[in-house]
Structures are given as structure tokens and as C-alpha cells.
């Protein structure tokens, strides 16, 4: 039996076989040929301007740049995961994070976030083939933990991602608390901050270590100023009455009737409260009315579109004041109330159901200077648009933030310097809440 021996040479491409032919040549011819080819190869790398030499250099440089980019992105992603894990560990230990600006926040100011958001909005409005809709929407729901069972329509009926994001829910999915003495949540989200606004500045806490004024959020022409001035005048008038009664002579107090002898009256006053709620991309994206009220004024601020996630809240100054927002102001039975719907990156489009013609995130006329807010007074003036508790008011895409600023009754306890508020919050920072659930009421059990 005869065996065929396989050649010891490895299989090579055809253009390399010509090097094997040199082996049969004399030694001096082989050295001459190899030196010529080596010289030609060096020339091609040095010039890189003509023929296949330039292509070879490009072929070697492109994979190197790609690998460097992938490596850089991997390092940044790993750093972000490390920072997020560090934040979670601090929260578990009960350590509250403070405001700490960084380089990333400054870099965001250089990006054309408004133009990027308009491009994203265009992509979201593109019609998706019917067969692909269930797969795309289910993938989104898995990524952002959305509950598709609450959708009012089958997934095939949502033509685009934009329609899917602002989808309505099945009837009864968000029951509204019927208690007339309670304030309900206008959105699904997470309570970031809440409390009572005290002092002349009326500062809203963005994060521990940094706050912004309610007036800067709502605007210079806000009805908030009239409400504060009215309450200040009321306090001065009550104080003057008390001082005047204290000047009465001793005999008038001694012989007065018991009703006049004890003139201390506990009259309800108006305190100013706020509540900040953050919506994640997977949350229900429609905004409802928190109470029965009259919407008197709409104010649209054409600002930036920074992200509104937890990282941005800790690193960007005046985040809610600088971002584009739509503010609704009006009156309810307790006094002043305002609701600010704040846009974020890829959330430039804020839709108002009571004013469908309003368009947001339009190209700016002036790039360097901020534009004055666009304001509209709803007719009839002084009455405005009446909305009921739980009624739909607005909608926006992706994640965003809603800030409530409102007046509610407080009473000053006799003989004490502090104020015991009649209105009390029934939630705390960090709680998750849904539309229609109670935020606060006049008497919490």
C-alpha cells in the first residue's frame, strides 16, 4: 500500500505562491528578488499617495481607529457602571447625594441637543410596518419596564413610536381618588422633591446643596407674585389689628365681655407648596389635572433640552429653569396653582390638549440670547379653561419632569412660633406614584 505524503508548505493565497518559486532559483538571485520586493513595500508605506500603497495604508489604519473608538466607549461605559453602582451603594447606606458639577455637564452645553431632539422626533413619527410593530414595542417594553397590558389598543394599531409613547390606557387603569379634599398625582413617576416654600426667595430644592427660585421657574409675569403679595398684605393687616387691640387700657380689658377679652382668632392662611415628579422613558406619558381648577395662563419657555435623569440633576445648575417647558397657571379653591411640564433631550415636543396648535422645540430665531416666553391668556379673561380632576391636559415623549407649585391652607398655632400645616403630604421623596393617587390632603389619616 502506498501513502501520499502531504506537502509541508501551508496553504497560501495565490498571490503568495510566487514566493515559493524563488526557492528553486540560485541563492544570489533569491537575495536580489527579496531585496527588491522589500524595497517596494517600504516605498508604498512611505508614499501612501498612489496605487495600492495608499489602499494598504488605509486598510491598516481603519481597523486601528475602530478598535481605539470601541476601547474608549468601553472604558466610558465601564466608568458609568461603576459610578451608578457607587450611587446605589450610597443610597442603601442612607447617604444623600449632593450637588456636584462635572466636566460632562459642561460638554452637554456644546451639543446641539435641540436639533438632535427634532431629528429624534422625526424618526419617532416614521410609520412602522404592521408586522414589525409588536416586536418593536415589546422590545421597548422589556428595555424600559412598560406594562403593555394597560394599552387601550392592540399594538398593531400604533402607527409610529410617537403614537405608542403617548398611548392612552384602558378605562379604569388609573382610578382617580374621589376625595374632594385631596390633591392627586398628575403623572406616573417618582417623587423627587416636595415641601413647603418658606421665606422671600421661595426656593425649590433641585438636589441637596442646590436650589432655584419658584419665580425663575414660572416666569417674571407669574401669578405667583400676586398671590405672595396678597398673603403678605393679609399678614400685615392681621398684625396691625393685633397691635391695635393690645393698646387698649387695662380697665377696658378687665370689664370687657369674655368674647372681647380673648380676641385671639385662628384664621386660615395660605402656605406655598411644591412637588417635583420625574417620569422615566417607560412610564405612562400623559399629564392629567391634579385637582379641579381654572387654567388662566399658558407660558412657553424655549430653553435648552438637557437630560433630566438623576445624574443630570446632580451635575447641571438650574436644570429645570434652563430647559424648555410649558407652564400652566390658574386658580383653585385654595388659591394659586401652577403646573410646569419640563422637556428633556429627545422630549422637545410637549402637546397641550387644551391648546393643540401649540408647537414646541422650534428652531430658535436668536442663538446667543434667550427668547422671552410666549404667553397666552385663555378666554374668558379671569375665568379661563375649567378642567376637572383627572382630566387629560398634556403629553410628551420619553422621560420628563412635572413640577407642581400651589397654595394651600395653613393655620398658625396659638402660642407657638412654628406653623402646623392643614395641608399635609401623604408621600415622601423617593416614592413611586401613579396618576390619580393622593399626593396630599387636608387631613391625612
List the helices and strands and how they pair.
Elements: H1 27-47, H2 51-92, H3 103-108, H4 113-124, H5 133-144, H6 161-165, E1 182-184, E2 189-197, E3 203-207, E4 210-213, H7 214-218, H8 224-246, H9 250-254, H10 258-261, E5 269-279, E6 286-288, E7 293-301, H11 310-315, H12 319-322, E8 325-332, E9 335-342, E10 350-352, E11 374-377, E12 385-387, E13 392-396, E14 400-412, E15 419-421, E16 424-425, E17 432-433, E18 438-441
Antiparallel strand pairs: 1-18, 2-5, 2-17, 3-4, 5-14, 6-13, 7-8, 7-11, 7-12, 8-9, 9-14, 10-13, 14-15, 16-18
Helix pairs in contact: 1-2
Molecular structure report:
Heterodimer of a large membrane-associated beta subunit and a small pyruvoyl-containing alpha subunit. The chain has 445 residues and is of the alpha+beta class. Among the domains are: 102-165, no CATH class; 182-244 and 266-366 and 373-441, no CATH class. Helices cover 33% and strands 22% of the residues. The chain has helices at 27-47, 51-92, 103-108, 113-124, 133-144, 161-165, 214-218, 224-246, 250-254, 258-261, 310-315, 319-322; strands spanning 182-184, 189-197, 203-207, 210-213, 269-279, 286-288, 293-301, 325-332, 335-342, 350-352, 374-377, 385-387, 392-396, 400-412, 419-421, 424-425, 432-433, 438-441. Helix 1 crosses helix 2. Mean pLDDT is 75; it is low at 5-25, 40-62, 238-267 and 414-420.
Amino acid at each position: 500500500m502506498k501513502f501520499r505524503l502531504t506537502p509541508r508548505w501551508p496553504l497560501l493565497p495565490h498571490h503568495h505562491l510566487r514566493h515559493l518559486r524563488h526557492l528553486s532559483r540560485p541563492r544570489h538571485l533569491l537575495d536580489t528578488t527579496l531585496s527588491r520586493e522589500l524595497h517596494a513595500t517600504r516605498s508604498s508605506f512611505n508614499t501612501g499617495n498612489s496605487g495600492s500603497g495608499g489602499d494598504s495604508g488605509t486598510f491598516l489604519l481603519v481597523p486601528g481607529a475602530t478598535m481605539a473608538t470601541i476601547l474608549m466607549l468601553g472604558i466610558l461605559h465601564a466608568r458609568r457602571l461603576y459610578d451608578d453602582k457607587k450611587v446605589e451603594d450610597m443610597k442603601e447606606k442612607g447617604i444623600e447625594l449632593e450637588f456636584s458639577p462635572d466636566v460632562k455637564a459642561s460638554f452637554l452645553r456644546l451639543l446641539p441637543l435641540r436639533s438632535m431632539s427634532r431629528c429624534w422626533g422625526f424618526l419617532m413619527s416614521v410609520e412602522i410596518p404592521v408586522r414589525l410593530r409588536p416586536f418593536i414595542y415589546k422590545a421597548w417594553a422589556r428595555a424600559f419596564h412598560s406594562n403593555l397590558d394597560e394599552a387601550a389598543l392592540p399594538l398593531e394599531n400604533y402607527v409610529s413610536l410617537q403614537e405608542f409613547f403617548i398611548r392612552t390606557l384602558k378605562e379604569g387603569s388609573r382610578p382617580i381618588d374621589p376625595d374632594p379634599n385631596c390633591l392627586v398625582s398628575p403623572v406616573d413617576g417618582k417623587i423627587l422633591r416636595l415641601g413647603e416654600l418658606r421665606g422671600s426667595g421661595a426656593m425649590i430644592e433641585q438636589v441637596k446643596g442646590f436650589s432655584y427660585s419658584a419665580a425663575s421657574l414660572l416666569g417674571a409675569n407669574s401669578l405667583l407674585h400676586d398671590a405672595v403679595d396678597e398673603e403678605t398684605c393679609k399678614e400685615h393687616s392681621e398684625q396691625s389689628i393685633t397691635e391695635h387691640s393690645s393698646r387698649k387700657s387695662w380697665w377696658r380689658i378687665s370689664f370687657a365681655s369674655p368674647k372681647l377679652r380673648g380676641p385671639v382668632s385662628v384664621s386660615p392662611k395660605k402656605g406655598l407648596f411644591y412637588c417635583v415628579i420625574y417620569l422615566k422613558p417607560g412610564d405612562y406619558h400623559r399629564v392629567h389635572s391634579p385637582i379641579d381648577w381654572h387654567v388662566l395662563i399658558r407660558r412657553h419657555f424655549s430653553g435648552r433640552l438637557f437630560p433630566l435623569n438623576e445624574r443630570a440633576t446632580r451635575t447641571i445648575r438650574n436644570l429645570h429653569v434652563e430647559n424648555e417647558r410649558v407652564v400652566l397657571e390658574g386658580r383653585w379653591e385654595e388659591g394659586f396653582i401652577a403646573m410646569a411640564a419640563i422637556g428633556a433631550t429627545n422630549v422637545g415636543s410637549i402637546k397641550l390638549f387644551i391648546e393643540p396648535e401649540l408647537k414646541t422645540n422650534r428652531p430658535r430665531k436668536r442663538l446667543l440670547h434667550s427668547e422671552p416666553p410666549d404667553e397666552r391668556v385663555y378666554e374668558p379673561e379671569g375665568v379661563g379653561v375649567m378642567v376637572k380632576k383627572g382630566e387629560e391636559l398634556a403629553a410628551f415623549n420619553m422621560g420628563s419632569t412635572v413640577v407642581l407649585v400651589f397654595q394651600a391652607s395653613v393655620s398658625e398655632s396659638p402660642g407657638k412660633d412654628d406653623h402646623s400645616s392643614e395641608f399635609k403630604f401623604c408621600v415622601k421623596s423617593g416614592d413611586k406614584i401613579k396618576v390619580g393617587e393622593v399626593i396630599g390632603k387636608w387631613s391625612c389619616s
